[in-house]
Amino acid sequence: MTEVIALKTAFTELPPAFNNDHVEWLMEAVLRNRFLPCPDPDSIFVGDGNFQAVGAEFLGHFIRKGGVRPDSRVLDIGCGIGRMAVPLTQYLDFAKGSYCGIDPVAGGINWCRQMISPVYSNFEFRHLDIAHSLYNPKGAIDGLELVLPYEDRQFDFIIMTSVVTHLPDEEVSAYLREVERVLAPGGRLFMTCFVVDKVAAENPLKKRDARLGFQRYDEGPCWFVPELPPLAAVGFDDGFLDGALARAGLSVTTKSFGHWRGVPSDHYQDLFVAELDRGDR
Questions:
Q1: Are the beta carbons of 130 and 143 closer than 8 angstroms?
Q2: DSSP output for 70-124
Q3: Residue 180, Cβ neighbours under 10 Å: how many?
Q4: Which tens digit of pLDDT belongs to each residue from 134-159?
Q5: Does the keyword Methyltransferase apply (predicted)?
Q6: What H or E segment, with its residue span, contains residue 244?
Q7: What is the mean pLDDT of the segment spanning 26-35?
Q8: Contact indicator for 196, 238 with CB cutoff of 8 Å
Q9: Three-state DSSP state, 213
Q10: Residue 20: which pLDDT band, with cuts at 50, 70 and 90?
């Protein structure tokens, strides 16, 4: 079973007409639909695993764990080459729902603009020239000074999959401040990460992903993998992300540990779902 820490009452009801059987059917339909766009494997520059399978899996997580609805206004920060966007085309209502994807890698954005937006006009993609030592070393925008190109309170559901796993702690806080600004009251953030607690660090079950032997970087909250470039995989002290979300004005509804750490789970990375209080303006 997935190890979940429930910090307050989380979303428990699926959108109207979407029970668990329907979600399973939708995920299977996305996985088997040979007409959905799929990039050449050599073009998939972010994330490993099967493009269609990972996308279908996360569609299920977004609905069940995150509470995304067909009429949600979605922002995907670090959308890459459309791994999350493609399955969402089969779920978001064409007239009421919308999707905006941003990424610092122009190649992924160009592919999405060519292969997704012409068919799904409620899906738009923007290149945001954020500097990153691995993905966009010549970027013009300092991550600490990030300002998302959207108005306040514009989105109901924000995705950050495999984003904070490539950011230093100061930039995580900068991103979350912007998430709070553009999230509508009652809206939710779905964020994956690596939380390095005692189980993850000491690996008592000897089942942790062998690629992720995190070691503490300095006195700060970051953990890096010695054999990899510093931002190739970033973990954080247990409690750091909880605090960063709280300081940004977001309330954690779900904190769920992934099977990268060697525990049973239906997802690989750890994940948070956090909500902006409905009273916030």
A1: yes
A2: TT-EEEEET-TTTTTHHHHTTTS-TTT-EEEEEES-HHHHHHHHHHTTTT-TTEE
A3: 21
A4: 999 999 999 999 999 999 999 999 99
A5: yes
A6: helix 240-247
A7: 94
A8: yes
A9: coil
A10: confident
CATH superfamily placement of domain 20-33+47-276: Vaccinia Virus protein VP39 (3.40.50.150)
Residue in the block written with tokens 């329907």: 22
Q: Report pLDDT for 278.
A: 77
pLDDT at residue 17, rounded to an integer: 60
Could you state, in order of their start, the residue ranges of all structural domains in the chain? 20-33+47-276
State the chain's mean pLDDT as an integer. 91
The dihedral over CA atoms of 183, 188, 193, 198, expressed in degrees to the nearest 10, equals: 120
Position of tokens 């999959």? 161
How far from the centroid of its chain's Cα atoms is residue 226's Cα? 24
Render pLDDT for 85-110 as a digit per residue (tens, 0 to 9): 999 999 999 999 999 999 999 999 99
Residue 23 and residue 63 in contact, taking contact as beta carbons nearer than 8 Å: yes
Residue type, 67: G
Joined together, the tokens standing for residue 212 give 């992720």
Token match 């997935």: residue?
2
